UniProtKB/TrEMBL annotation:
Taxonomic source organism: Aphanomyces astaci (Crayfish plague agent)
Recorded superkingdom: Eukaryota
Sorted UniProt keywords: Ligase, Phosphopantetheine, Phosphoprotein
GO biological process terms held by the UniProt record: amino acid activation for nonribosomal peptide biosynthetic process; secondary metabolite biosynthetic process
Protein name (Swiss-Prot/TrEMBL): Condensation domain-containing protein
PANTHER family: NONRIBOSOMAL PEPTIDE SYNTHETASE (PTHR45527), NONRIBOSOMAL PEPTIDE SYNTHETASE 5 (PTHR45527:SF11)
Cellular component terms (Gene Ontology): cytoplasm
Molecular function, one GO term: phosphopantetheine binding
Family (UniProt): Belongs to the NRP synthetase family.
InterPro entries named among the record's database cross-references: CAT-like_dom_sf, Condensation_dom
Keyword Hydrolase listed: no
């Protein structure tokens, strides 16, 4: 993620809005109090001759909370997003109090994805609300425990696992094609109802994430005419053997290969994928860019699409909303799918794509077939 700062600095930046219309009493002091207890809000990155390092500032003296007046909130958000972050910033998270319109006021938390994942965003949003409303803050374990776990992993064992997992793969699974990058939407969003799926999955002891991955694999198989496909899948890593990792703030996710060989029926495939996901957990914090070099020609990317299944508890208070990001192109892969369960029977599916590497028409074709495949699964796996 940090590697994109020079080329596409805004790609991995999110903005979260907090309604401050009920009062502005001591907002800067309350936010600084939170920053003092949350090391990710004091985190930056430093490049040296030995590599890139995550550095936690020891104090809050560098933290500035500006109060800004602007005609519209959208105008501020656009400028703030363009500003993004650089390696000269003292922190990869910042907070501003923005007055706009007819006396409306919002707090804007701007944070780089290198510091958070979906679980962290939900917890951090709650922490900011608690701080602003003067409530006691939850005790959070340090992210260093996760770093120590990663450093303790045996890279040789990880390489052996991924080499075996990818062995025999006939070739890359890539969707990129010529595109003239005409002006077009770079994101597609749909909500689908799947009233029968939960009961079906419960009977075969498989989670919804596996079904979503199978649907994407089926889409790739149909359009690329391949029976052995691979793509990236985002792994939460919130069950790794680290004390209280579920309550830890930081970017714990990783992107690893998901391989599907169509040599059995869908139920058997789902059960095999579920078993694979459990087996790869000890090796899931291996970087996908490294994984893609094992078992394949180094000059070729193994895959250029990714699926993320985000299963989070929603923040209860309505004073929070995330700024509109669905209009952004894909950050890294040609197609990036994010699937969010709204209820046990409904999924929100967002597809972002890179218009320089695939046309809007072709991306829409992949997206629509994915939706049709999920709907067909609801009728019978």
């Amino acid at each position: 993620m940090i590697s994109t700062i020079d080329t596409t600095p805004s790609s991995f930046v999110s903005q979260v809005l907090f309604d401050l219309s009920q009062g502005l009493d001591d907002v800067p002091d309350k936010y600084r109090h939170l920053v003092a207890q949350r090391d990710i809000l004091r985190s930056t990155f430093v490049k040296t001759e030995f590599g890139l390092f995550h550095v936690v500032q020891p104090s809050t003296m560098y933290i500035s909370i500006p109060r800004i007046s602007t005609l519209t909130l959208d105008a501020f958000l656009a400028v703030d997003l363009t500003r993004a972050f650089t390696l000269d910033d003292s922190s990869f998270a910042r907070f501003a109090v923005v007055e706009h319109g007819n006396g409306q006021v919002h707090g804007v938390l701007t944070i780089h994805h290198a510091l958070y994942d979906g679980a962290t965003m939900a917890m951090l949003t709650g922490d900011v609300l608690d701080a602003l409303q003067g409530r006691p803050l939850a005790v959070r374990p340090p992210f260093r425990l996760v770093v120590d776990y990663i450093e303790a992993q045996d890279s040789a064992l990880a390489e052996r696992y991924w080499t075996t997992y990818l062995r025999g793969l006939p070739g890359p699974t890539c969707v990129a094609c010529t595109s003239n990058a005409k002006n077009c939407a770079v994101a597609l969003v749909e909500t689908i109802q799947m009233p029968s799926t939960s009961a079906l999955l419960k009977r075969i002891h498989v989670g919804m994430a596996a079904l979503v991955s199978l649907a994407w694999a089926t889409t790739l198989r149909r359009l690329l005419r391949m029976d052995d496909v691979v793509f990236g899948q985002v792994v939460s890593n919130r069950t790794i053997p680290v004390k209280d990792v579920a309550r830890t703030l930081g970017c714990v996710i990783s992107s690893v290969p998901c391989r599907v060989t169509f040599d059995k029926d869908n139920v058997s495939l789902l059960q095999a994928m579920q078993a694979d996901n459990a087996a790869m957990l000890p090796y899931s914090l291996t970087k996908a860019t490294v994984c893609k070099q094992w078992g394949v020609d180094d000059s070729a990317a193994l895959f250029d699409t990714e699926v993320s299944f985000v299963n989070l508890a929603m923040v209860e208070l309505s004073a929070v909303k995330e700024s509109h990001t669905t209009c952004r192109p894909a950050s890294f892969y040609v197609i990036e799918l994010t699937v969010l369960p709204l209820t046990t029977d409904a999924l929100c599916i967002q597809g972002n794509f890179d218009p320089h590497r695939i046309s809007g028409t072709r991306a829409r074709q992949y997206f629509d077939i994915m939706l049709d495949t999920l709907k067909s699964f609801d009728k019978g796996i």
